[in-house]
Amino acid sequence: MRSTTPDRVAPDVVRLGDDVVNFYLVEHPDGLLLVDAGLPGHLGQLRTYLASSGCAVGDIRAVLLTHAHPDHTGLVTVLHRAGAEIRVHALDAPILADGPRSALRHAKSERSLAHYLLRRPAAMGTPLHMALRGGFTAPRFSHARTFAGDASFDELPGRPRALAVPGHTAGSTAYAFPELGLLFTGDALVTHDGITGHRGPGLVCRGFTTNSVAALASLDRLDSVGDALVLPGHGDPVTDLAAATEQARRHGVS
User: 98: which residues sit within 8 A by CB, 6+ positions away?
Assistant: First the structure.
């Protein structure tokens, strides 16, 4: 179990969150941005880290959401009120607009969570962790800037590129920062699945995946990025993208 202390995983990137979910602060000379927005309970951690570096929540220019599941969107309202613009793929925007309890209605999973709980009761730890940190209580949010498919955000710090990687959700998106050698994969490629307990590069289980065939196909999109530090939504970073996607294919979808 990793510490909840922010962890510098690259010269320009600090990993925030906890042992269940990651979100990332990109500290670029042109400004700050977040990739994903954690859980509501992570606000204190974010504020404390920013204060330690002489910054505040209002200094964050934008939040790039990899998808709209509640463990990745918990702070969007607070951050938007402080001045950050929130960007999300158009296909996931309805989840934000309807609130975190709507996630499974808009992004119906291929398999019931009960399937996993019967085989591994410890799987309950992940949704319980989300609940205890306010994951299902965040307010509805309808002010996101949306995009469709791939997109380039040259006006944002680091000039990120959005890559559509559907499967986990219809609007799942990875963000590449070619100038920085970074690839944020969200839940399109993770290195820890809290439901199955699997550690190592893989795909999120069917209990939280809408289309496993599309999720496997999206690994090819990630491969197109080339060399990059892979920063997933769950689990530790990995340095070899090609090896990670191949391992994920071999493991398949549980």
Answer: 105, 106, 140
